[in-house]
Amino acid sequence: MSTLANVLVVAEHDNTTIKACTLSCVTAASVITLHTDQEVHVLVAGSNAAVAAAAAAQIAGVAKVLHADSDALSHGLAENVTAQVVAIAARYSHILFATTATGKNVAPRVAAMLDVGQISDIIKVDSPDTFDRTIYAGNAIASVQSSDAIKVITVRTTGFNAASAVGGSAAIENVEGVIDSGKSIFVGREVTKSERPELTAAKIIVAGGRALGSAEKFQEVMAPLADRLNAGLGASRAAVDAGYAPNDWQVGQTGKIVAPQLYIAAGISGAIQHLAGMRDSKVIVAINNDEEAPIFSVADYGLVADLFVAIPELIEKL
């Protein structure tokens, strides 16, 4: 295969650092190139993002970093990032995005502009044209084969180990940044700041459900356990919909997909949508007073108990 048709990973970054989800995409890209003469390239599209480009060049397995710098790319507006990707797409056989809010915003636009199908949320690379993805909320796995000349793919980051952020020495190529499309404008950003680990990067997650009864009880019971374990704090959709927890804490099919080393689910019944978002966790601990709760079917350790009694006792033991 021609080295001109390489594999591109579209990096997520804050113009300074590369986000962890990009490292998993690099691993997926490396598997695609395993039996070919292709290279893995990373696109860093931003404004004054030279530091992020330099960080991308250090990722193990990356052969080249494309640095596109433009004021139009400073806030990652989907229309402008799409135009940047499409401008260089002819050089690549595969274009990979993380299955994140950003990736799911840009990837479909790129696929539409290139008139190709999108292969969504892959968990395994079988060959350069065949990929596995979950369907039916994770209860079945479909193998998808594509004959498109350019394959636009989103990667479930929990399905691939993160590539090392250091050890690489990729060349950095400056490419012309696109001009503003004029289709959208950046108005503002509200950033949630927390000393706890971000959910998708946390090694331990403590998640609460509707059984907590109120936002006050959620904080009173779950927050001390999360703080004691230095864990990310998550919630079921039912808890979020009830107003007990903010949207960015939601774990599940319509929330964040996580796979920490330890996942503690308290007062979560285990609806199929929630299980789809956390069933890949290495160790799952469930605390629920209903011994028939579906969460116990995926739990490695289950405790049938009142969470308002069990969790304070657990904190005391820790």
Could you explain the architecture of this structure?
The chain is an alpha/beta fold and 318 residues long. It folds into two domains: 171 residues, Rossmann fold, CATH 3.40.50; 119 residues, TPP-binding domain (Rossmann fold, 3-Layer(aba) Sandwich), CATH 3.40.50. Helix content is 26%, strand content 26%. It is built from eight helices and 14 strands. The strands form two sheets. It has a nine-stranded mixed sheet, with helices on both faces. The protein has a five-stranded parallel sheet with strand order 11-10-12-13-14. Helix 3 packs across helix 4 and helix 5 runs parallel beside helix 8. The N and C termini lie far apart (56 Å). The mean pLDDT is 93.
Can you give me a brief rundown of this structure?
This protein has 318 residues and is α/β, with parallel strands linked by helices. 26% of the residues lie in helices and 26% in strands. The mean pLDDT is 93.
- Report the biggest beta sheet as strand number plus sense, adding barrel if it closes: 9 strands, mixed
Structural class: alpha/beta
First CA to last CA: what distance? 56 Å
Helix content: 25-40%
Low-confidence spans: pLDDT under 50, at least 5 residues? none
Radius of gyration: 21 Å
Strand-residue proportion: 25-35%
Write down the overall geometry: globular
The third-level CATH topology of the largest domain is: Rossmann fold
What labels describe this entry?
Rossmann fold, globular, 9-stranded mixed β-sheet, alpha/beta, single chain, 318 residues
